[in-house]
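REQUEST ID: PR-0412
SUBMITTED BY: lab tech R.K.
PRIORITY: routine
TASK: structure prediction, single protein chain
INPUT:
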Amino acid sequence: MKAIRLLAMILTGVMLLSAYAYAAEPTPPDQPFRGPGGRDYLHAAVSKARLGAGAESFWLYTPDKPRPSSAPVVVLLHGWGGMDPVSYGAWIEHLVRKGNIVIYPRYQADLTTPPTEMTGNALDAVNDALAVLQEGEVKPQREHLALIGHSLGGVIAANLACEAASGWMPLPKAVMVVAPGDSKNSNIAHAFDIGAQVPGIMRDYSEIPEETLLLCVVCDEDFLAGSSAARNIFYGARNVPRENKDFVIVKSDRHGSPQLVASHFAPLAPDEDYREEKRSRLRDRLRDRLGKRLAVAEVMEVAPVNALDYFGFWKLADALTAAAFRGELRDYALGGSYDQKSMGLWSDGIPVEPLEVTDAP
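STATUS: complete
OUTPUT:
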């Protein structure tokens, strides 16, 4: 009987220790209260409008409550197939409530739109959006314009910076490309089964002006886009001096739960309040194109919003635009400082794997 009681006590102890260990598993940091990436919002609401038609249509998101008379402009360019803003809704909400107008060009009428037309479609949408805003209640600060693009949108953002240098749209003060890739500089074409015949759309980025602040951001577990396109943009923008640009690697961290995984889909920030199309329609289109690879595309609607966003993508974007527009927060945006690289702390006080910042990837 003593042996049985002893065994029972040992088993109970093991179970309690296991339960404690599970309960005490560290959690990632929440959104900070203030600063770049933080929740110290200037506005309580976002006004939304959809304008235009087809591949040249766009969404406008403007700050409200209070409504400013004017605001800086951020053009947010989605990845391939992300025509519905739902996939980036939380990031849009964050950017607008921080005080920016966000233009979200569709640039794809559907999944068959040729890549060679996408930069032109986005360019037309941006210029149309600026014209509409000029007649509206919240005027665009055309001299304070930034381009942020994810995946294929990252390549388009860099392309638009070249178009601006040629006079086709206002010059962006800041450009941030996140996990950029196209059919010739990544595995995206294979993953989405869009065909080896699809042309790449990257170009000569030496046209990007020297005064542009540039961030090329990649994820260390991005097996779709990799880092080739980002390196091409970083090195191709040879007129931008090293002090005005950084190559940044966002790192995965599995110290606690939920894990922080820096995949190609990490920059996505779904928010159902920004859904514009019925889920079934989007998935039907993707299913027709992707077949068995549908699961890859569905991640676009369920990716978590977490510390990789708050301390990584959102922080960098907030800081880069503040540095470009107002000369503020440059240490958070460029140069490899602690403030730029820090990703916050797990709940047990262990630092989240910091960003890797380099001028020579």
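NOTES: The chain has one domain: 27-358.
REVIEWED BY: pending
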